[in-house]
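Researcher: We plan to redesign the surface later, but first we want a full-length starting point. C-alpha cells attached.
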C-alpha cells in the first residue's frame, strides 16, 4: 500500500524557517498534522496560524534541540496535543566555517551539539513508542558534503558524516521492527543559513524543492537520498580529486569565509 501522510503526526525540528518551514507547509497540504519544534517560538506560532487558517492541523512548542530535557518536554507537549509521533524529520541544523588560527572551538561545539546530538535527542524522544507500535519513520536531514571533508568546512562535514553513520547503523539495527530510517542529503538550498554565502552556489534549490525531495524519499523508504542529482555527481568528482586541486579550488573561500554553509 502506498504511504500517505494524511492524518500522520509528523514531527519537524528546525521548523521556523528554511527547509523545516517548507516541510511543515507541504505536510499540512497533504493532510498531515505537523508537530513543529524550533528555538524561535514567535515564528512557529505564525507558521501554525498559517496552517490552521488554511484548514490544516498543527501544533508548536519552542525548544533548542541541543538541550535534551527541553527538547523532550517540547515533544511530550506536542504528543499530548496531536497524538503519537508517526514520522520524525530531524531537520534542525547549523553551519559555520571552520577557522584555523585560532580554531573557532565554540562554533565547532555548537555544530556537534545541534547537528549530531540534536538529531539523537529527537530520535530518543520518539523511538520507544514507535518500537511499541512496530511502526514509524525516522528521518535526518544531512548534507551532500557529508561524503567528503572539505577545507574550511571540516567540522560541518564531520557533523553530517556522523549523522549518516548513526542513521545507517540504526537502520540496520531496526530491521524487522517496523521502524525505518532515512537520511536526506541535499546540496545547496536557499535558506537563511546559505543566504550569507559570498559565492555562486551550484544547482541551488528552493526550500520547497528540497522539502518535496525529502517527502518523496520518506514515502519510498529510501535508505539515503542525495539530491539534486547533478550536485551529487559533482560531489563524487570532488571526492575523487587530489587534495591540491581541492585546496586550490577553495582558496578564495577560505581566505574570505562566509557566515553560512550548505
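Model: Full-length starting sequence:
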Amino acid at each position: 500500500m502506498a504511504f500517505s501522510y494524511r492524518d500522520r503526526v509528523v514531527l519537524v525540528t528546525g521548523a521556523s524557517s528554511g527547509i523545516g518551514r517548507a516541510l511543515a507547509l507541504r505536510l499540512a497540504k497533504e493532510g498531515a498534522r505537523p508537530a513543529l519544534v524550533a528555538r524561535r517560538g514567535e515564528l512557529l506560532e505564525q507558521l501554525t496560524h498559517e496552517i490552521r487558517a488554511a484548514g490544516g492541523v498543527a501544533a508548536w512548542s519552542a525548544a533548542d534541540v541541543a538541550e535534551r530535557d527541553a527538547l523532550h518536554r517540547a515533544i511530550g507537549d506536542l504528543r499530548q496535543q496531536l497524538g503519537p509521533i508517526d514520522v520524525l524529520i530531524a531537520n534542525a541544523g547549523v553551519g559555520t566555517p571552520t577557522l584555523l588560527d585560532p580554531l573557532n572551538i565554540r562554533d565547532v561545539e555548537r555544530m556537534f551539539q545541534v547537528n549530531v546530538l540534536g538529531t539523537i535527542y529527537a530520535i530518543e524522544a520518539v523511538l520507544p513508542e514507535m518500537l511499541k507500535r512496530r511502526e514509524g519513520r525516522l528521518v535526518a536531514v544531512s548534507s551532500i558534503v557529508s561524503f567528503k571533508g572539505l577545507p574550511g568546512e571540516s567540522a560541518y562535514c564531520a557533523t553530517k558524516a556522523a549523522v549518516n553513520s548513526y542513521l545507517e547503523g540504526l537502520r540496520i539495527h531496526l530491521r524487522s521492527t517496523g521502524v525505518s530510517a532515512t537520511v536526506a542529503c541535499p546540496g545547496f538550498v536557499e535558506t537563511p543559513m546559505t543566504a550569507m554565502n559570498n559565492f555562486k552556489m551550484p544547482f541551488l534549490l528552493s526550500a520547497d524543492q528540497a522539502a518535496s525531495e525529502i517527502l518523496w524519499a520518506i514515502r519510498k523508504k529510501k535508505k539515503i537520498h542525495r539530491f539534486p542529482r547533478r550536485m551529487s555527481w559533482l560531489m563524487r568528482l570532488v571526492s575523487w580529486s587530489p587534495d591540491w586541486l581541492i585546496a586550490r579550488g577553495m582558496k578564495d573561500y577560505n581566505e574570505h569565509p562566509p557566515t553560512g554553509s550548505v
